[in-house]
Write a structure and sequence with these properties.
Layout (H helix, E strand, L loop, with lengths): L3 E13 L2 E12 L5 E6 L7 E6 H7 L9 E8 L2 E10 L2 E8 H14 L11 H14 L19
Antiparallel strand pairs: 1-2, 1-7, 2-3, 3-4, 5-6, 6-7
C-alpha cells in the first residue's frame, strides 16, 4: 500500500517585480515515487500543469539556493514574509513561483516522516519486482536444446 501526502496552497506567479498573480497549486508526494515531488499548477487552462522534480532539491531549497537547469529553488523574503522561490524553465516558457515557506516546510516535514531521507530505495519495490520477474522466468520452459539454432544468429556480413 502506498501513501500520498498532499497539500493545497496558493502560489504567486511573479510576472514582474511589481506584479504577481495567485495560482492555486497542489504539492504531492507518493511513496511509490519516493525520490520525487509533484507540483500541479492550475493556471486557467483546460488541463493543469504538473512539474516533477527531486524532493531533495526542494528540501535543500528551503534553506539555500540550489538547482540548475530546468528547476531552481531558493529561500527569500518578500514584504517581510518568508517564501520559497521556484524558477521553472521549459521549451514552452519560464515561470517564477513564490510559495509560503511555512506551508512548504510543514508539507516537506510530513513527507520526511513518511519516508525518511536515505530510505527511499526501500519504497521502490525493486526487490519485490525482481523476485516476481525471476519467479516468472523460472516457470518458463527453457529453449529446446542447449543452444539457439545457428540460423537465428547469422554471421557478421552475411
Amino acid at each position: 500500500m502506498h501513501t500520498v501526502v498532499e497539500r493545497e496552497l496558493e502560489l504567486c506567479l511573479v510576472l514582474s517585480p511589481e506584479r504577481s498573480i495567485p495560482v492555486p497549486a497542489r504539492l504531492t508526494y507518493r511513496t511509490d515515487d519516493p525520490y520525487a515531488v509533484h507540483v500541479t499548477l492550475h493556471v486557467g487552462s483546460d488541463t493543469p500543469v504538473t512539474w516533477t522534480f527531486a524532493r531533495e532539491l526542494l528540501v535543500e531549497g528551503v534553506f539555500r539556493a540550489c538547482g540548475d537547469g530546468d528547476v531552481r529553488v531558493w529561500p527569500t523574503k518578500v514584504d517581510g514574509r518568508s517564501v520559497v522561490c521556484t524558477a521553472l524553465n521549459s521549451p514552452d516558457g519560464e515561470a517564477l513561483l513564490e510559495a509560503p515557506a511555512g506551508a512548504v516546510s510543514a508539507w516537506l516535514e510530513r513527507t520526511l516522516r513518511v519516508v525518511p531521507p536515505g530510505s527511499e530505495r526501500e519504497h521502490l519495490g525493486l526487490d519485490k519486482g525482481l523476485s516476481e520477474l525471476l519467479a516468472l522466468a523460472s516457470r518458463d520452459e527453457a529453449w529446446p536444446g542447449d543452444e539457439w539454432p545457428s540460423e537465428e544468429f547469422p554471421e557478421a556480413g552475411a
